[in-house]
Design a protein that fits this description.
Elements: E1 3-7, E2 11-17, E3 32-38, H1 40-50, E4 55-62, H2 65-76, E5 80-87, E6 93-99, E7 105-110, H3 119-126, E8 132-137, H4 143-155, E9 159-162, E10 181-182, H5 186-193, H6 200-212, E11 217-221, E12 227-231, E13 235-238, H7 251-264, H8 269-283, H9 296-309
């Protein structure tokens, strides 16, 4: 089985739990605070690795205590980190997160070393691509680096999966044709296509727009309503796995890790979307980003129990 390569961000998450999210100008008292390894790139790498897939991360950390802690955490999760550069000229990326009692969140990201990723990082990636089944990308690093990484993967014949978050930064028009699978949530899909995506009908229209821009497969993550997937040949819907949400901060990353893990295992697109939905649901039942990613045994038991119930 070929490996999954993730090219992206590594952050330390600083998480405050509060009964509800504040409105602008408001100060609230929180219930709890903790730090947890995060960053969309690192999260997706951990998600895939914990599902038993050989996974390698290419990214940057700062030469600080957060960087050392993050690198150790990645190694413990089974992620290959020889492609991670320690950048002594920068601090490690951080994300300041507020999570309310329903599991909803607000996130502020300070890029640090992630914002310094460039062609040198792409060259480290390029050497790894011949052994890759898929390359996972996100938008928490410079757009030029994402574009160059996608180009390198396309030249190597490697499937490119893009999580377009944060979508407020936009996706360059020339990047779309390099994307095999794009996986926005409702808010991100709306930001990309320029109209609200507030249900399955609007999601279908948004996915059609993304396909027209050149992506091979467009997937809309609709939270507790499920997942809509569209290609040029078919459109299908996968209902959500209903769970009691505690923290949804990394559910989208768990989805992408599960999706890529299934595809790397030779499963169909429909099966891969189910794997993504199951991984995302499981991650929402625990606090923290990487700590919430399910291991393979937990994942298999969850998926089997839900299939049996149906």
């Amino acid at each position: 089985m070929k490996k999954i390569i993730v090219f992206g961000s590594i952050n330390m998450d600083l998480v405050a739990r509060t009964p509800r999210l504040p409105i602008p100008g408001e100060t609230l008292l929180g219930n709890d605070f903790f730090t947890a390894p995060g960053g969309k790139g690192a999260n997706q790498a951990v998600a895939a690795a914990k599902l038993g897939i050989d996974t390698q991360l290419v990214g940057r950390l700062g030469g600080d205590s957060f960087g050392r802690e993050l690198l150790s955490s990645l190694n413990l999760a089974g992620v290959e980190t020889s492609g991670v550069l320690v950048d002594e000229a920068a601090h490690s990326g951080v994300a300041v997160i507020a999570v309310d009692d329903s599991g909803e969140n607000h996130i502020i990201i300070v890029s640090g070393a992630n914002g310094r990723m460039n062609q040198d990082d792409v060259e480290r990636l390029r050497a790894l691509l011949p052994d890759a089944a898929a390359l996972l990308l996100q938008l928490e690093i410079p757009a030029a680096a994402v574009q160059a990484a996608a180009t390198a993967a396309r030249e190597a014949g490697v499937r490119v999966i893009l999580d377009p978050a944060p979508a407020s930064r936009g996706v360059p028009a020339e990047l779309y044709p390099l994307i095999d699978i794009i996986t926005p949530n409702e808010i991100e899909a709306g930001q990309l296509v320029g109209f609200p995506v507030d249900g399955e009908e609007a999601a279908a229209r948004a996915l059609s727009v993304l396909l027209q821009r050149g992506v091979g497969t467009a997937i809309a993550k609709l939270g507790d309503r499920g997942v809509l997937c569209a290609t040029a040949e078919e459109t299908f819907f996968v209902p959500a796995f209903l769970v009691q949400a505690v923290d949804t901060v990394a559910a989208g990353d768990a989805f992408n890790g599960g999706l890529a893990a299934a595809l790397a295992s030779g499963r169909s697109l429909h099966e891969a979307v189910i794997w993504g939905a199951a991984a995302g649901a499981l991650s929402a039942t625990k606090s923290g980003a990487q700590p919430s990613m399910p291991d393979r045994d937990t994942f298999d038991k969850f998926l089997q129990s839900r299939i049996t119930q149906e």
